[in-house]
Amino acid sequence: MIPLQLKVQTAAHAEPLVFRLRNDEHATDIVPGKDAFLKSRSGNLAYYDLDGREIQVALPSGETCDNDVVMVLPGRSTAHRLIRSASRHNTLLVTEQCDQLCVMCSQPPKASHNDLFRPFFDACLLAPREAVIGISGGEPLLHKARLFDFLFMVHLNRPDLCFHILTNAQHFEEADVDFLRQLDQSKITWGVPVYASSAEIHDRIVGKVGAYATLQSGLTILAKAGARIELRTVVLRSNLGALGALARTIATRFPYCTVWAIMQLENIGYGRQNWQLEFADTSTDFVAVKAGIDVALAFGIDVALYNFPLCTVPSNYRIYCCASISDWKQKFLPECDHCIAQHTCCGFFEWYPEDRGFERVQRL
Amino acid sequence: MSIWPLQFRWLGQSEYLFSNDSGAFFRSDERFLRRYTEERLTEEDYQFLSDHDFAFSDVGDAPFLGHAYHWMKRLNTAAELNYVILVPTLRCNLTCDYCQVSRAAETAKGFDWTESDLNLVFKILSEVKGDSLKVEFQGGEPLLRLDLLQAVRSFVRERFKYAEFVVCTNLQSVSKEAWQFFESSDTLISTSLDGSPDLHRKLRTKSPDAHDEFLSNLGRAMAQFGPERVSALPTLDVNDLPDPAEFVEQYAELGIHSIFLRQVNYQGFARKVLHQSNSTSWYQFYRSVVHYIIEKNHCEDLAMEEFYLSHLLRRVIRGGQNNFVDLRNPNWLGIDYIVIDFDGKIYPTDEARMLSRVRHIDLAIGSLQTGLDQQKLWQLNQAVSNFDDPDCAHCVYRPYCGLDVIDDLSRYQRVDLPRHMTHHCNKHMTLFDYAFELLYSESPVVRSSVAKWLGLTSLPDNVCLVHK
Amino acid sequence: MEDKSIIEKVSITEIYVPPEFSEHLDRALVRLAYLFPEFQVSQSDLDQLTIRVRHTPKLDTEAFSRELHHALAREKIRSEGEPLRRALLHSIFER
Asked: From CA B402, how far away is CA A60, in angstroms rounded?
């Protein structure tokens, strides 16, 4: 597993420190006050100079972290690797608060909130060109005004950056359409979960009565704003039989979505607690997922399979699979040795339970 | 609850097909029609209509927006010029019986673009605002002026970010340079392959040697470039139709899986036409071919198709498909697509060019020298959409269909005839009837082919709705 | 010269029109007139609820009634759908 936090030592500071690690002092794109230059190394300990401030960082083995953007909170001895320059998978956790309690939640909610939008803004300005940055939580839109300010300001300064924002679409209002249209919506993908077209099933899965109704109006608001929408459905025993009906509803009622991502369960957070109850072994029974895919494709809806290892999917549906598991939490199994498809496969989550997971895993 | 207005078509017995303007459809019966028009819908009716978004509660709610989006997706919005048909020469090395354009002899003079014409073509293309262009070379026989094809292709590749080329050639005489020209992956070949070998020879190639040469070239093209880059289209004589099975097998043997059944358009020819081109014999042949294809697909696990039928099915289920310019709504003329003839005249469609040659009708919309005749275009474009046509407005197939101003003008010299009196409408009513018959078929063999034509592995049960 | 046209028997059949369609009858009749020029259809002088069909040889009453009902239904649906069509266009093209 790739560490997202590094041990650091530096003199006390009152505000969060956001800076970029640079190995090359002669780089031409230096941002004064934000770039920390490597002065010396001793084993895995690296010493940086950030405009006179000395910072000692314990680098992970095998990585240089060159051009990584990190954040050190006051009084802490860890640096959060907010943006790893060599990775396509960088996500900013903007809050841990949430108004839903999804049965498969990988990031169970907390009551407190730490506003880090200003350091996140600083970090984005240091990101590599055309980086794709995830925005996640909890529910990011619980802090809608701050989030919108953040998006607008980053867009103004770094129009090349793209965002992938996960949201339950419970907090949009008609008045938001005007603001959203000011953003470059071609640079933002809104990832919105929907678990069933039955309000009863969806509400039960997300743990909030009325969620489905509000979700629908949220989606219409995003549509009016010209947003790119990635509808996301985690496959669970609770919604397996309803995938075909959901597919038809998406095709009829939300045809403007850019893609429908059908996802396998992640064994972390509530997903781990509810694994036995909710994990659906699609390697032995793909019928329900196939029904959903076929209906969506029939009506011209683009489909993607996230977190489905290639060998667990019938061969003629493998083209919909994506390398969807973030590099830092990805692993492969012994069965994967010599598999010819390893480089395109999403692999498994770091915390995938081999004893309770897919029955059919084999190298291709 | 507001129900989007429904169009309907009687299917015989007590069966009806219903659709609304977004293209959503379902089958039901006469009693439902009566309940609907007499405003005594039942709870089950409302439940069905609401469940499948044939109705909405509030303007702007989720079902409303979904319907609006589908409606909008079926519009052919006017785009920048992105498709040109270029006719660099009218000369041809064959003398096909039914040639629609009265080609000129191979040695004739004065039937090619001049240097000045070529420069004017470059000028027009350089003024295009978009960044993509599809160029189709027609003729005569375009390969007789390979130099002009090369000049245009180089220019377009340089000027446009996305470029695609199609050469419509008889593949009779293909030089080494021409084969090299075809090698680029952005260049496609379209050729003719009529009925049976005998028919093809009778109408087109004439001599056995010439026919062999053609077949050899076609075989080489298929082997070298594959069916993705080579298409072969028949032009069929309704008075001399081949045996459906032999006909399909001829294509299958060559590895060509998409067959576009087209009739010779006899307008303007001196000889009398005994059969209407919408004759029952044509549609019997059509159905036989499709039926044969369905059986063959099942037995041999293939995905052969009749191109136009597949196109209609995709328009029904998905909307869009506006790249095929013959059927779009509104079917804008002279806006995103033009035809530039060997003499510099500009036409709105290739049919318009061909019909202007053989009939006493002038469908040109301008020329390289004088530019586009905006007044004429404006007039033509008054009649290109079917939304408010007094007949189309009531038609169950309206969302999937479109008007053909050129066809109406050339046949009837007017565009305002009641739809059911036009060839275009009758043809499409018949074909859409057939398409829906196949969509609602319960035969697994039929469903398997329909699925393949839609690019699916199987056709889900809930794609086609029935309300009883 | 003798008029060679055959004097044919002309019949008149009356068909009842349900009241909910009466306001759409005019438009339906216009359409029927060009769809079926072999028939002459007019409203009854006596009341609004019947139409008279003037025809030669036997009229297939069932078939014609169906065509009449369809024409009436279509005019009614089209007319009553006008506000919804406007709402649709307004929502798409406004702003």
From this structure: 63
pLDDT one-digit tens code per residue, B41-54: 999 999 999 999 99
Is C62 touching B (CB cutoff 8 A)?
A: no
Q: Which residues of A touch B439 (CB under 8 A)?
A: none
C1 inside domain: no
Chain B contact partners (≥3 CB pairs within 8 A): A, C
Specify the CATH class of A87-349 in words: alpha beta
Chain C partners within 8 Å of B28 (Cβ) = none
- ipTM summary value: 0.91
Closest-CA distance of chain B to residue A68, Å: 35
Contact B38 C18 (CB under 8 A): yes
Residue A165 has pLDDT above 60, yes or no: yes
Alpha carbon of B115 to those of B120, B122, B364: distances in Å? 9, 11, 22
DSSP secondary structure, A325-349, as one string: S-GGGEE--GGGTT-TTTTTS--EE
User: How many structural domains is chain C composed of?
Assistant: 1
**Residue A252 confidence (pLDDT):** 96
CA distance A293 to chain B (A): 10
Starting at the edge strand that comes first in sequence, how are the strands of the sheet with C40-43 ordered?
A: C11-16, C50-55, C40-43
Tokens of A57: 């960082």
Stated pTM of the model: 0.92
What the block records as the tokens of B189 is: 């070949």
- What value does the mean pLDDT of chain B take? 92
H or E element that contains C42: strand C40-43
Task: Cite the beta strand spans of B30-153 per DSSP E.
Answer: 55-56, 83-86, 132-137
The answer to whether the CB atoms of B62 and A294 lie below 8 A apart is no
Strand-pair category, B230-233 with B258-259: unpaired
What's the mean pLDDT in A74-103?
95
Per-residue model confidence (pLDDT) at position B275: 44
Cβ of B319 within 8 Å of Cβ of A300? The answer is: yes
C-alpha B101, offset from chain centre: 19
pLDDT in tens, B64-123: 999 999 999 999 999 999 999 999 999 999 887 777 557 888 999 999 999 999 999 999
**Alpha helix (H) residue ranges in B55-145:** 62-73, 115-126
What residue segments make up the domains of chain A, in order of their start?
1-80, 87-349
Average pLDDT of the residues in B8-28: 97
> What is the arithmetic mean of pLDDT over B379-391?
94
Q: Would C3 be classed as within a structural domain?
A: no
Instruction: Note whether B403 and B329 are within 8 A (CB).
Output: yes
pLDDT tens digit sequence for A218-276: 999 999 999 999 999 999 999 999 999 999 999 999 999 999 999 999 999 999 999 99
Distances (CA, A) of B307 to A192, A347, B167: 38, 40, 19
pLDDT score recorded for residue B315: 96
Residue from A57, A46, A45, A43 nearest A10 by CA:
A57
Q: Chain C, 36-55: which have a CB under 8 Å from a chain B CB?
A: none
Helices (H), A207-351: 211-224, 243-253, 270-273, 275-278, 287-298
Q: Does C66 touch chain B (CB under 8 A)?
A: yes
Q: Domain map of chain B by residue range?
A: 1-73, 337-421
Which CATH number do you get for residue C56?
3.30.70
Residue B246 CB burial class (10 angstroms; 0-12, 13-18, ≥19): middle
Contacts of B59 in chain C (CB under 8 A): 87, 91
Chain B residues with CB inside 8 Å of A256's CB? 65, 69
Is pLDDT larger for residue A98 or for residue C26? A98
User: Quick one: which of A1, A141, A16, A14 has its CA closest to A71?
Assistant: A16
Condensed to tens digits (0 to 9), the pLDDT of residues B422-458 reads 999 999 999 999 999 999 999 999 999 999 999 998 9
Relative to beta strand B25-29, strand B15-19 is antiparallel
Q: Identify the pLDDT of residue B266.
A: 65
